[in-house]
Amino acid sequence: MTDLTYTRLTHAIASLEKNIARDSDEIQVRAQFMDVIAQDTARVAEMIGAMKVDDDTISETKELSKILRGLSEATLAYASSADTTAKSAHAAGEQARTTHAGIDEAVSRAPVNVSEVDREWFRQE
């Protein structure tokens, strides 16, 4: 098992934060796209209704619009959850940086090199 250092921890957390934020943004874009598709389908249903297309086609298009609207709403709710997750990841990153930066600074200023000390020694009571 590799040793977890402050530098590795901060890099891992920063990478995770970035990935979660990027994924959250992508989900938001796709949710908005689904909303546009649902609105377009509703407009198509209205247009074909005005052209006196058969009732079955009109009702199927309206039903598809409702399904897409529901999918859009679910995707937007999921996007909101993803945004909350991204904010939580950022807060966890800030907490890790705040907490561990002090530890890293104290270790780096310590007159004793503890990197070679057996870790079990620290666990002793």
From TrEMBL:
Region of interest (Disordered), ranges: 83-103
Record keywords, A-Z: Plasmid
Protein name as it appears in the record: Conjugal transfer protein TraB
Organism of this sequence: Streptomyces zaomyceticus
